[in-house]
Specification:
globular; 11 helices; mainly alpha
Length: 230
Amino acid sequence: MTAPLVDPPADALSPRAPRERAKMYVQRKLLILVLLVPFFTVCYYLPQWLPLVPHTKIPLLAIDRAVPFQPGWIWPYMSMYLLLPLPPVLSIRVDHLRRYSLGMALMFVTCCVFFFAYPIAYPRPELPADADWFYRYIAAIDQPINSLPSLHAGLTVYALLYARRALADLGPRTLTPLLVLGWIWAVLILYGTLATKQHYLVDLPAGAVVAWVAHWIAWRGADRPAPSPQ
């Protein structure tokens, strides 16, 4: 029989090198990828494939109108899919990976319910003649009707909330600069959601709130002291 996966003691020496961290529980990490990617695809695209109610639009705010349409920002926008797996790949505890998966699943289901019940469409501009192939591809496969809350913003925020918890063993001297870089990256991603006209401004804080609630639920009880042995 195989022994169940058990985290090392809390005071065990934590590996610092990214390669060492990535190699820990690699099968578990790959399983998360295999399960969450299709689950995300279903939750995101099913409301587009099988809409239950007609989509609607909401008024543009001043910032929505002020940010110019810049299709080239599709690259920073889609870089969220590079940021998202980094914290779990560098995780070194099974319990953290379990909480990551739980929070992600909660976020997917919550946003899916919103997309079915109240689909909001963004008035995407006409495809410019000089748009590069990547923007054309994304515009072709992604209808602009899963606007509120922004799952793109939610995933970005969730990745950094999780990183703050799962990488805490690195210590503040290492973790703080990483988080600063991460939030700078997040700002570029979030601006990309506006510059590519994928989202209204109000979609972004709504997505961040969904991410925070999912993260909070997933990490409930994490700070309670372990029961003393009898």
